[in-house]
């Protein structure tokens, strides 16, 4: 969950590295550093804190000369954020500089051996062992040295390595951590993700685990672990550069909230042809679907919340049992799972460590893996039997919005697709469902038109100490997401509860003025949730109800009401979540929080 950039070319490297790192700050932002080859030696500049501090220290990179370098923005795992723990790390002689994303699991034993050999360590990081291992194994051949180092380290890594003996090239590798190679004109790049280099090139190589890449300004060569050169296909990224820019918005999060209608259209429309859902991307046949014994949905955080919606929707539409579990639990629970089970893995980044490990666990049990992923060519996508991409484009804000929405859309497509194959829907029901799915982007756009109403409500409640979200069934599933959105960016304590469960303990926390956000969008359970609203009102709560235009009696019980358009009950989460995202955003904005980079968080969680 750190960000890496590397550059070799004809231009000054440091400003390019800093600019690239600014696009990767979402991956970690507690310190940053660069190493640039200059005058036959490696020059390093580092600073604890945001990238802006390093940028100021180096005059936007202008004070660091040289046309080849590597850079890093860190999310601390081993050792506190500090100048000394920041990357790049140097070997004792200064010959090697290393940036690393991931975790070296056996670093303690390696460190001990190296120290016994007289190596001096200056940081608390796991990464520093890599720099010293390079020095230890160096035989004058950088590729052979890399292979020897890789044979010793266990864990996950994306590495960029400069060696002062090689003024015209640097070397990189990845395993279970992301890294792409950017191919320019007389310049080449590495980066944790395409957004960092999109300004310079759209042509990239995706690297497989342990492929070693040697970058010169006019060539890129890739080798396997036997030092044999391998050929790769160039992939051309079709994102618009503006997709990764703020484009006049104060925060990426608001830009991404506003982008949801387009992201939904891009995800849904190509998969509906002549009124039918066409999932060309997957190889699951009707026979396979009929043979599914059970479906597991595995994910983390907001992606897990999509899974909770998925459980209700798939069970209702397909009558196949669905179990949804957070990946960090699934991977260690010795799941009872076999070859007739389908595991749906959901991940925006496609690199979340726990989700990837859960996927591997399920695969080891023989289950079939269908993943819903946003980042093309990511580890989770590569490890799956089938992938359905969410075409949300780059999501930069740490708190997800458009990725969540597009993941939901894919869940609907999968559920409706399977229900049709299983003969669970009449042709009329299917046609209506498909057209309701197609209508979602416009309905989301409609809700966004009244975002100022939510802003007004946020202005009334941004000083709250604790906020509860309640709902039943699908409304409960969306409550989980609304509560997470609010707490992660505004730092207000919040909990989501199944509305009927509150009175089994947690209602004791409700006191005069406590805000309860009650979601009551569905028809069948509306009255039940209204009863729960009355219970909390009777204990002094202030209630903000979220319901559809169909219900005109929420006003009788709630203090404030937010209305969303009506649609098929199963699809309502796509609409209900929008005011909740806006509420979290506006509350955080009024509190002056750092919305795109909330404290202690990083966007890609590549550690357990
Ligand atoms: C919350 C959020 C996280 C992610 C979670 C999984 O706003 O973004 O909870 O949903 O870390 O990340 P991915 O989807 O990349 O696996």
Give structural notes.
There is one protein chain. This protein is of the alpha/beta class and 608 residues long. Helix 7 (260-268) packs antiparallel against helix 14. The protein is globular, with a radius of gyration of 25 Å. It binds fructose -6-phosphate.
Question: In short, what is this structure?
Answer:
The protein is an alpha/beta fold and 608 residues long. Residues 300-303, 347-349, 352, 355, 399-400, 484, 488, 605 line the site of fructose -6-phosphate.
The portion of residues assigned to helices is 25-40%
- In this structure, how is the largest beta sheet organized? 8 strands, antiparallel
Number of DSSP strand runs: 27
- Approximately how much beta-strand content do the residues carry? 15-25%
List the helices and strands and how they pair.
Blueprint: E1 3-8, H1 13-24, E2 31-38, E3 41-48, H2 51-57, E4 68-74, E5 89-90, E6 96-104, H3 107-116, H4 128-137, H5 142-152, E7 155-163, E8 170-175, E9 180-183, E10 188-191, E11 203-206, E12 212-216, E13 219-223, E14 229-230, E15 235-236, H6 252-258, H7 260-268, E16 272-273, E17 276-277, H8 286-290, E18 294-299, H9 301-318, E19 322-326, H10 327-330, E20 341-347, H11 353-364, E21 368-373, H12 379-383, E22 386-389, H13 402-421, H14 427-449, H15 451-461, E23 466-471, H16 474-490, E24 493-498, E25 515-519, H17 526-538, E26 542-548, H18 554-557, E27 560-564, H19 572-590
Parallel strand pairs: 18-19, 18-20, 20-21, 21-22, 23-24, 23-25, 25-26, 26-27
Antiparallel strand pairs: 1-4, 1-10, 2-3, 2-4, 5-6, 6-7, 7-8, 8-12, 9-10, 9-11, 11-15, 12-13, 13-14, 16-17
Bound molecules: fructose -6-phosphate.
Fructose -6-phosphate (F6R) binds next to helix 9 and helix 16.
């Amino acid at each position: 969950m750190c960000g890496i950039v590397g550059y070799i070319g004809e231009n000054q490297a440091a400003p390019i590295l800093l600019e690239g790192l600014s696009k990767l700050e979402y991956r970690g932002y507690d310190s940053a550093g660069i190493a640039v080859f200059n005058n036959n030696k490696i020059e390093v500049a580092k600073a604890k804190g945001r990238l802006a501090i390093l940028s100021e220290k180096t005059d936007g990179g202008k004070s660091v000369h040289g046309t080849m370098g590597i850079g890093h923005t860190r999310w601390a795992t081993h050792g506190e954020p500090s100048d000394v723990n920041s990357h790049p790390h140097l070997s004792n002689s200064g010959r090697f500089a290393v940036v690393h994303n991931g975790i070296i699991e056996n670093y303690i034993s390696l460190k001990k051996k190296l120290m016994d050999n007289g190596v001096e360590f200056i940081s608390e990081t796991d990464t520093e062992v890599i720099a010293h291992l390079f020095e230890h194994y160096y035989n004058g051949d950088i590729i052979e040295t890399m292979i020897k180092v890789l044979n010793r380290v266990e864990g996950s890594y994306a590495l960029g390595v400069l060696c002062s003996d090689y003024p015209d090239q640097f070397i990189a590798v990845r395993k279970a951590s992301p890294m792409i190679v950017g191919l320019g004109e007389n310049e080449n790049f590495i980066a944790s993700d395409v957004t960092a280099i999109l300004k310079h090139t759209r042509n990239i190589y995706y690297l497989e685990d342990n492929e070693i890449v040697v970058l010169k300004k006019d060539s890129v060569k890739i080798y396997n672990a036997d030092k044999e050169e391998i050929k790769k296909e160039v992939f051309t990224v079709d994102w618009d550069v503006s997709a990764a820019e703020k484009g006049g918005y104060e925060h990426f999060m608001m830009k991404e909230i506003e982008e949801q209608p387009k992201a939904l259209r891009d995800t849904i429309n190509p998969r509906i042809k002549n009124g039918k859902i066409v999932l060309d991307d997957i190889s699951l046949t009707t026979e396979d679907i009929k043979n599914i014994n059970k479906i597991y949905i595995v994910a983390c955080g907001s992606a897990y919340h999509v899974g909770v919606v998925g459980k209700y929707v798939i069970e209702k539409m397909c009558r196949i049992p669905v179990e949804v579990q957070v990946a960090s639990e699934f991977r260690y629970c010795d799941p009872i799972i076999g070859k007739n089970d389908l595991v749906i893995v959901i991940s925006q980044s496609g690199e979340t460590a726990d989700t990837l490990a859960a996927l591997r666990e399920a695969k080891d049990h023989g289950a079939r893996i269908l993943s819903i992923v946003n980042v093309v060519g990511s580890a989770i996508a590569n490890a799956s039997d089938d992938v359905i991409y969410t075409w949300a484009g780059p999501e930069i804000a740490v708190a997800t919005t458009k990725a969540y929405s597009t993941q939901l859309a894919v869940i609907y497509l999968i559920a409706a697709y399977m229900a049709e194959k299983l003969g669970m829907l009449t042709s009329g029901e299917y046609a209506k469902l498909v057209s309701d799915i197609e209508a979602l982007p416009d309905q989301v756009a409609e809700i966004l038109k009244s975002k100022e109403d939510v802003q007004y409500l946020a202005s009334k409640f941004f000083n709250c100490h604790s906020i509860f979200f309640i709902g039943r069934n699908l409304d409960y599933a969306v409550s989980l997401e609304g509560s997470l959105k609010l707490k992660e960016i505004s730092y207000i304590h919040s909990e989501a509860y199944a509305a009927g469960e509150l009175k089994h303990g947690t209602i004791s926390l409700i006191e005069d003025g406590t805000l309860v956000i009650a979601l009551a969008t569905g028809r069948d359970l509306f009255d039940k949730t209204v009863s729960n609203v009355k219970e909390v009102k009777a204990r002094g709560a202030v209630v903000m109800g979220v319901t559809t235009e169909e219900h005109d009696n929420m006003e009788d019980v709630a203090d404030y009401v937010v209305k969303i358009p009506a649609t098929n009950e199963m699809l309502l989460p796509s609409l209900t979540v929008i005011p909740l995202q806006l509420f979290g955003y506006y509350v955080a904005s009024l509190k002056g929080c750092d919305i795109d980079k909330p404290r202690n968080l990083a966007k890609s969680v590549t550690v357990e």
